[in-house]
Structure formats: C-alpha cells, structure tokens
C-alpha cells in the first residue's frame, strides 16, 4: 500500500511538471507516457526498503533522468515509451535518491559532482549541506547479507574472509554494517567509504543500479556487477535484474580482483 501511494505521488508530480515525456517505475509493468513535448524521461524506484517501514528503518526513493530520444518520436506510443526507458546509464543527465531517516536527505548529481541537501522542516526547503561529496578512496566497512555466506561463490567468500581479518590490501579489519535498505546502505557507504553489495541477481539495472552507479562515479567511486562497469551495460528489459556492487574505488578494484563474486545460487529467499 505504501508503495502504491508513493508511486502515485511521483507520477502526479511529474504529470504536473510539464517537463517529463515518460515515467518508468519499478512498481509498474510498463512505462507511462505523460507528455509528447516533455524533454525528459524519469526512471524510479519509488519506495526502496518498503519492507522496513513498519520497523521504522530508513527507506528511500531512487530516480534517474534521461533526455527524451526525439529520434523515436515517430514510433507508436508504447514502443517509444519502452525504448526511451531502456537507455544506457552513460546517457543519464541526472540521478539521485531521497533518504527518509533521522533527516530527510536529497542526494543528487547533474553530471558535475554529487551533492546532498537536507530538508529544513521549518521552511520546507532543501538546504545544501554536503557539496561536492567525495567518497573516500578506501573504507573499512562492507555491507552485505552475511547470512547468505554459504550460498556465495568462492571468490566472494575469500574476499570477505580476507578483509574482515585485516589481511587485504588495507591492513585493518573491516566491520559489517547491513541495514537491508539499499538507499540507507548506499548513503552510509558514500559518506564513509567501503562497499555495499548484493551479489545475486536481485537489484534492477534501470531503477536502482544505473542511478546509484552514476552518483557514486560522480563522487569518485565505482559501480559494478562484479565484473564490468554498471553504466556500460545496455538494458534489454525494464525489470532486468543483476548483482550490484557499489563503493570506494580501491575497495571495488580489490573486490573485482577476486573474479568469482557473483552469486548464481538463489534458493528463493523469503526475506
């Protein structure tokens, strides 16, 4: 129910803006064509971490913005809506997330760095509080569901075993911090460095991986599927899923060097 309401709020806002041609949402089977003259395309995960709401754990909204592909304007509406929404992450003109937590934070990039704004509840304004965020080149925190350790491939197990013993390229023992709310885990990683990950084919390329990879790259980090740069991937389906690793550049390079880090075993977890 929470997701449906959030999805409707975002759609109504985009419809009223007069600036958006199409919106593609993780909660809809197909993109919604809004305005033939709208110059932009918006993709969104309207309420990330929704399972955590009743436990008062942080949730968020993720979004990415592309330019409308005017060369497709002659196509039928349904076809051009899908093709506009399946643009490569390299074509993003902006992306961001809103974190709903102890503070409401809007973190965004327009292609010139990553910046965070905090909501001032007394005025309703978002105030620039974190200009030009730079993710530390290395952190000391990894974020992943350790309960799935025995389903992981050997490479990922070896990487985690190595860094938490302090035997990696960074000679300090890493700590685990896992909220199971992607926006919250990613925000902490952006602030403190390290790696946030889900090694199985779970997160969506269009709605989550591309926008967050754009943000972390603009802050000096890296987004990867464990093998290649996320933004280099061409989406072929709206709800395409993949492993996702986001974080500090040196941590990500060390992680990828282990090779076998994508989890192929998926027993169908309930949680």
UniProtKB/TrEMBL annotation:
Gene Ontology terms: biological process: fructose 1,6-bisphosphate metabolic process; fructose 6-phosphate metabolic process; fructose metabolic process; gluconeogenesis; sucrose biosynthetic process
Keyword terms: Carbohydrate metabolism, Hydrolase
InterPro entries for the chain: FBPase_C_dom, FBPase_class-1, FBPase_N, FBPtase
GO (cellular component) term, any one: cytosol
The UniProt record lists the keyword Hydrolase: yes
Keyword Hydrolase: yes
A molecular function GO annotation: fructose 1,6-bisphosphate 1-phosphatase activity
EC numbers: 3.1.3.11
All residue ranges annotated as the Fructose-1-6-bisphosphatase class I N-terminal domain in the record: 4-131
Enzymatic reactions: beta-D-fructose 1,6-bisphosphate + H2O = beta-D-fructose 6-phosphate + phosphate
Boundaries of every Fructose-1-6-bisphosphatase class 1 C-terminal domain copy: 135-258
Protein family: Belongs to the FBPase class 1 family.
Protein's name in the database: fructose-bisphosphatase
Organism: Hevea brasiliensis (Para rubber tree)
């Amino acid at each position: 129910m929470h997701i449906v309401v959030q999805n409707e709020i975002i759609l109504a806002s985009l419809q009223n803006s007069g600036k958006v041609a199409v919106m593609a949402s993780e909660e809809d089977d197909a993109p919604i064509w809004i305005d033939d003259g709208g110059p932009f395309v918006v993709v969104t995960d309207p309420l990330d971490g929704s399972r955590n709401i009743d436990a008062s754990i942080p949730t968020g909204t993720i979004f990415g913005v592309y330019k409308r592909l005017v060369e497709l304007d002659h196509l039928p509406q349904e076809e051009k809506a899908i093709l506009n929404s399946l643009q490569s992450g390299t074509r993003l003109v902006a992306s961001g997330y809103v974190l709903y937590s102890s503070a409401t934070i809007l973190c965004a990039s327009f292609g010139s760095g990553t910046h965070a704004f905090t909501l001032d509840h007394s005025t309703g304004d978002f105030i620039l509080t974190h200009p030009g965020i730079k993710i530390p080149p290395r952190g000391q925190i990894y974020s992943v569901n350790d309960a799935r350790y025995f389903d992981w491939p050997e490479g990922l197990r070896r990487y985690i075993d190595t860094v938490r013993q302090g035997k990696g390229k960074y000679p300090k023992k890493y700590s685990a911090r896992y909220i199971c709310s992607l926006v919250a885990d990613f925000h902490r990683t952006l602030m403190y460095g390290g790696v946030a990950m889900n090694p199985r084919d779970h997160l969506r390329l269009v709605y989550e991986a591309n926008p967050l990879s754009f943000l972390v790259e603009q802050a000096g980090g890296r987004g990867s599927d464990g093998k290649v740069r996320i933004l280099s991937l061409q989406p072929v389906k709206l709800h395409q899923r993949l492993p996702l690793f986001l974080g500090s550049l040196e941590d990500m390079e060390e992680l990828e060097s282990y090779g076998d880090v994508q989890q192929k075993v998926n027993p169908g977890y309930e949680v």
